[in-house]
Amino acid sequence: MFDRYLRPLKDRALTPLAHLAGPRLSPNVVTWAAFVVGMGSAAAPFEGARGIGLLLWFLNRVLDGLDGTQARTHARTTAYGGYLDIVLDFVVYAAVPIGLAVGAGSPSPLMLSALLMLASFYVNAASWMYLAAILEQRREGASATGEATTITMPSGLVGGTETVVFYVAFFLWPSYLRTLFTVMTVLVMLTVVQRMAWARRHL
Questions:
Q1: To 10 degrees, what angle do helices 177-202 and 79-104 make?
Q2: DSSP per-residue codes, 158-197
Q3: CB 45 within 8 A of CB 100
Q4: N or C: which end of the chain has fewer CB within 10 A?
């Protein structure tokens, strides 16, 4: 709600940092640095270091703002850079609540595996929806490729068919839920990596 008002202030505040960093610093490097710091913010509560986690979260937000400012200041904006930023942001957004929840207590292994699987769904949705939006904008989406969907759905290891199979397995073999959840989580995250690699080559 407030982003439209705060974004110009953010750019004005971070532009001097972008000038200081210079044009040789890739915005994608800043994006990856923000990701590493954000994952540190998620990990800190495991050690009871919530204060450090909060500081790392604020640093993550600064770096997350700086990558875009760096790209715009030095005319280095790319579709892939925007895509990378969104996907890594969603990984951090999923990881921080899980880190806080685990740090606050001891959830059962089944509950944790379910949380991780749901987090992978969340990240996966960001990875394909944002990529689909870019492809539609470039007129390389569903209408151009003849797909029978509203927007293009970039393929990966796990799609609709695989999801149906996994969910049937959840009901049929409840004693193996933790294993099934874990396998699906790994495959979904591999799908995210697969899409990111495709985007790196084509955007």
A1: 160
A2: S-HHHHHHHHHHHHH-GGGHHHHHHHHHHHHHHHHHHHHH
A3: yes
A4: N
Tokens at residue 169, please? Answer: 């397995």
| Spacing of C-alpha 163 from chain mean position | 20
Q: Distance between CA 20 and CA 180 in Å, rounded?
A: 49
Q: What type of residue sits at position 76?
A: R
**From CA 112, how far away is CA 137, in angstroms rounded?**
38
- Tell me the two tokens of residue 110: 């089944």
Contact 116, 110 (CB under 8 A): no
Distance CA 175, CA 55 (A): 41
Higher per-residue pLDDT: 141 or 5: 5
* CA gap 181, 173 in Å, rounded: 12
For residue range 74-91, what is the model confidence (pLDDT) as tens digits? Answer: 999 999 999 999 999 999
Output the pTM of the full model: 0.88
CA dist 96 and 112 (Å) reads 14
User: Which residue, 63, 65, 189, is CA-closest to 125?
Assistant: 189
Q: What is the pLDDT of residue 110?
A: 93
